[in-house]
C-alpha cells in the first residue's frame, strides 16, 4: 500500500503501473501522523513494514525481518542497519550496530542501551507486529512530521530485536529535516517547535501506556530540553518558559541533589531565568559552559549526595 498524502507530482501515475498489487490510498495533505493513521487503518496484515517515499529496501530485507520475527515471538518489532546514500555525491555509507541486540525500556540501564539502538529504528528499518499499532494508534495529527518518534519509542517499550546487517537505503539529501541549513531560521524554528510538541505528546503517551516514568525520562527528556533551550536561545520566549525548562531539566538530571546544589539551581539559575530575557539568559548560560565556570561551583557544591554525576546525557536524534 502507498499512502499518498496529497502529492502533486507523478506519484499516482507511477503507482498505477503496479496496480492492482499495490493499493493507492490517496488523501488530503495532513502530515506524517495523518498518513500513518490512514495507512494503518487500511492495513490488514499481522506484520507491517514501513518505508518513507524517498528511501528503498535492499534485496532480502523482507525475508530477513520476517525470519527474525518468527524466531523472536516475544518482541513487537525488528530494526536493522542501513546504507546512508548521499544524493549529492552518489556514495553510500554502511551504518550498522556492533552486534545483534534486543532492546526494551524495562529499566534505566536498558533504556540507555535502547537509546543507542534508536538510529536503527528509522522508518525504512522498522517492521512491526499489528499489536504494537493497536496499542498506540491513532497518533495525534498535529504531529505533521517526527510522528515516527511515537512508533520508535513504542517499539522500544514493547521490545524489539535489532539486526546487525544493512537492509535499506536511507537517502540523505538537502530536504532531510536534520540536514537543513542552520541558517534557515524558519525551518530551524519549525523543527525545534515540532520536537517540543512531539516529545511532550510521546512522553505522556508512554506514561499513560504504563511505561515506567524513570525510563521515559531517561529516553526523552534530554532531546526535549535541548529543543526547548535551542528555541529559547535563538528566538526568545517568556521568562517563565525559561524557568520551567531549567527546573524540568534539573529534576530530570538529578534525582538526589545536595541541599547546596538545589539552592544554587533555584536561587541562582532560577532567579536569572526570571530576571533576564530568555535569549540573554541562554547567552550567559552558553558563555558559562564555554568557559567551564562550573568547575568553580563544583569545588564548593556537590551536584548530588555522594558526589554522583548526572543521571543521563542528552543526545539529539
Concise synopsis of the structure shown:
The protein is of the alpha+beta class and 317 residues long.
Question: What report would you give on this structure?
Answer:
This protein is globular. It contains twelve helices and nine strands. The longest helix has 24 residues, at 185-208. The protein is of the alpha+beta class. The strands form two sheets. Strands 3, 4, 5, 6, 7, 8 and 9 form a seven-stranded mixed beta sheet that branches. Strands 1-2 form a two-stranded parallel ribbon. It has helices spanning 11-16, 32-42, 61-71, 108-117, 130-136, 148-158, 185-208, 213-235, 239-253, 259-275, 278-290, 294-300; strands spanning 2-5, 24-27, 47-49, 56-57, 77-86, 92-95, 101-103, 127-129, 160-172.
Supply Rg.
Answer: 22 Å
Multimeric state of these chains? single chain
Shape field: globular
Helices, by number, come to 12
Terminal Cα separation, in Å?
28 Å
Question: Could you spell the SSE succession in H and E letters?
Answer: EHEHEEHEEEHEHHEHHHHHH
Low-confidence stretches: 305-317
The total strand number stands at: 9
Share of β-strand residues? 5-15%
Nearest-integer average pLDDT:
89
Structural class of the secondary structure composition?
alpha+beta
Helical percentage: 40-55%
Largest sheet: 7 strands, mixed
